[in-house]
Each structure stands twice: as structure tokens, then as C-alpha cells.
Amino acid sequence: MGVVRSIEHVNTGDGDCPTVDVIIADCGEIPAGADDGISNFFKDGDIYPDWPADLSESPNELSWWMDAVDSIKAFGNEHNKKQDYKMALRKYRKALRYLDICWEKDGIDEEKSSSLRKTKSQIFTTHAACKLKLGDLKGALLDTDFAMREGDNNVKALFRQGQAHMALNDIDAAVESFKKAVQLEPNDAGIKKELAAARKKINDRRDQEKKQYRKMFQ
């Protein structure tokens, strides 16, 4: 069912045609009495179905759902560390689906609300980092926007935003993102290095423009 639901949520264009290829691989019949593969489909220890709707029982306790989000997010982080970015993205999207259910449960006080918003921001930030690694630059930018909707003081999101702008050759926007990040983390060497590289590109561009103008008036 997780595969079916994933296909249902693929973006479509004209004539309901999917905008990306949908490929089913390694399929077959499930023998009678065998595990149906809804839980731990990828054999990585993740015990939660890909989609909350496929749970045999849907707990009412907010704490259960928050624990599920943390667990799934941790699996995403593990795949990220292994540089399996596609699988990490699957886990992060799954964690967001479970996080959405949290808001439907009773018992959300100010502390839990703040924790959920922070977790959501972290997931979108690491989601953006994975997309950068896979070359989905516009997707990474969109993720950083989502991450900063919970507050524009997310240094990592600003850093990823700057990297995406740089890769898209929008150097001015990259400088702005890195400058905001440096203001929040003035001692971060990595951010300073990226900011210096972006500023150098702007200076190089200005020098090139000056040379072109000189040739025009000679």
C-alpha cells in the first residue's frame, strides 16, 4: 500500500500523466501467511508503515506520534550519513507525514508545539541538503523556504539556501543568504568561506563588466 500511495501522490500534468517516470521493480506475489511488507519494507529496522493510514491501529496519544517522528527522522539521518540520499529523502518525507498527524491530537501545549515546529524545520533543512547532493537545486530552495517558515534564524537552512543560489548562479541572492547566516553564527568558518567565495564571484563579474565597457568606448 505504501507503493500505491506513493504513486497516488506523484505530481501529474496534462491528461493526468505523471511528471516523472513511475517504475515498479522487484515485484511479485506475497505467499499466504508471509509478511506483507507494510512495516520495515526496506529491512532497515524502521517499524512504521510508509503512510500513517496503513497502521493497523491509530493511537490517540500525541507522545506516540512524536516518538514515531523522531524514530523515522533518525533513520533518515542514518541514510544521509551513508550518502544514500534518495532513501534519506523517503524517510524525511515519511517523518513529515507522521508529524502532520501530531497536530490532530489532543495535548499540544506551547512546549510541544515549539518542539514540533523545530523538528519540522530540521527535517526540511536536511531534506534540502539531500536535494542539493542530488542536484535538485530548485527543490532544495523550496525546502529551505519551508524550513524558515518556522523562524528565519535557522542557520543551516540559510546556509543551504545560499549554496542552492550559488549553484543556480544567483550570486547576489547567495551573498544575502550567507550574510544572514554569518550574522547568526559569526564564528562559523564554513559559512565565512562560502560568503567570501560568493563575494569574489561578484567582484570578478564587476571587473569583467568594466573591461567590456572599456572596449565599447575605445
From TrEMBL:
Give the Enzyme Commission number.
Answer: 5.2.1.8
Q: Which reaction does it catalyse?
A: [protein]-peptidylproline (omega=180) = [protein]-peptidylproline (omega=0)
TPR repeat boundaries on the chain: 155-188
Q: Which UniProt keywords apply?
A: Isomerase, Repeat, Rotamase, TPR repeat
Ranges in coiled-coil conformation: none
Pfam families found in the cross-reference section = TPR_1
List the molecular function annotations (GO) for this entry: peptidyl-prolyl cis-trans isomerase activity
Q: InterPro entries, from UniProt?
A: FKBP4/5/8-like (IPR050754), TPR-like_helical_dom_sf (IPR011990), TPR_rpt (IPR019734)
Q: Which PANTHER family match?
A: PEPTIDYLPROLYL ISOMERASE
Q: What protein name is recorded for this chain?
A: peptidylprolyl isomerase
Report the source organism.
Hevea brasiliensis (Para rubber tree)
